[in-house]
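Class prep. Protein, please:
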Amino acid sequence: MKNQDSLVPSVVIKEMTFNDGSKKEFNKDDIVLLVGPNNVGKSRTLKDLREDLNDKSESKLLVKEVKYETTGFSEEQLRDYFERNIAKTSYGDYCVWIDENSSHIFNEQSFTNIWD
């Protein structure tokens, strides 16, 4: 039986350069949370990352460049995996399909009071 991890593609963001010239480097095991008040660019940053994966650099507003590495799949297969397994619900939540029998739904409240 195959190792389950080998079936799931992954992407590691190595570095992000923002339009103001600032850069942020990431390590492979980093976990990043985007937090802040309304209208500071959290969602736009995620959209820019999605646009970068889709090679649509003309629509990026905050993120100038992203350096990343993919594991397990080609870039095209990775895009296809995300399109098939991640969806926004009609309530504004995000649904991530883990496999055909299980999924996880999260929203902006999923990470509130995380340290309590």
Confidence is low (pLDDT under 50) at residues 1-5.
